[in-house]
Amino acid sequence: MKNFLLLGLTIALLGAQEIKAQEHRFDPPWNNPPESALNFTVPGIDNIPDLYGDIENPQLTVFFAGNQFMVVDDLLASFKKEYPQYERIFVETLPPGILAKQIKGGSITIGNLRITHKPDIYTASKRAINEMADYFSHTQVYCYNNICLMIPKGNPANIRTLNDLGNDKVRISMPNPQWEGIGEQIKASYKKAGGEQLVKKIMDDKVKDGSTYLTKIHHRESPMRVLYGQADAAPVWASEVVYQKLIGHPVEGITIPDAQNTTATYVAAKLKNAPHAQAADDFLKFMDSPTAKNIYKKYGFTVD
């Protein structure tokens, strides 16, 4: 009897450990970390997926629109190959609205880390760049993106259209327009699909009952909520579905018709007070190259 109880306890503990291990199986960082003497990334505890590279004395600092985190590995590797003089590069891929506040305020704190770096380059939607035009000495368009729905593989909620998101039982991971520009664009798509009634249902009624979850950083939260079974659907950029599938995560995408969709135009801007002006010029030149454009196409962006 004693041995039986010990065996049962052992099985229970192993089962608990397996469940705990599975809790973080889809956690970021999804990019490849830089080489270092020690990697101390602890899922759910010490993990900063939207800060990249060398934070000490960088030779180039880029603030990328957050939904472009997936291009960073390939883009920086190719840039360094063409411009080997730039060995230390620091990149942030936080939501563009947060990056804009960081630029205007001069600093940001994440956890216990305070960052005061000034960017050389800031990328965001055309609208966001136009709103800060006085900050920039040069701007250039470099890619485009459309909205789609990310769903779990197999589509268990049987979602087909934007109007299906109005179902009381459908759980949505929705970018909060207060924090992320994509939120307003998705609201515009809801209005095109189902009028103000659908907008109110998703953004008011379902927020109140908890079936619409508003994110602060949708390019991390929405995939994770879908992957961990916390959301039945998440409106995201098409590139985000492409990337999650590329790294083997069990998601699918639902195309939104052109008449209900929005195309984002992304612009790279050089700051007037860029600390590394020549590096900024070189990076903007690289962003216009066939190499950079092919990298963006690989991850589901369009460049023409």
UniProtKB/TrEMBL annotation:
It holds the Pfam family SBP_bac_11. GO terms for molecular function: molybdate ion binding. Signal peptide: none annotated. GO terms for biological process: molybdate ion transport. This is Sulfate-binding protein. It comes from Sphingobacterium siyangense.
